[in-house]
Specification:
transmembrane helix; mainly alpha; 0% strand; transmembrane; membrane; 43 residues
Amino acid sequence: MLELFVQLFKAVLQLFLALLNPIFLRFCMFCAVNCLDRYNYSY
């Protein structure tokens, strides 16, 4: 019973990561671009 729960949890976790990844990457890119812009404007 516990093993089934662990496998289900892993499947849900992988699905969650698959959904979250593009959003997280886009967020990181957005932050990086913002930081670079701010750095460039300071000069």
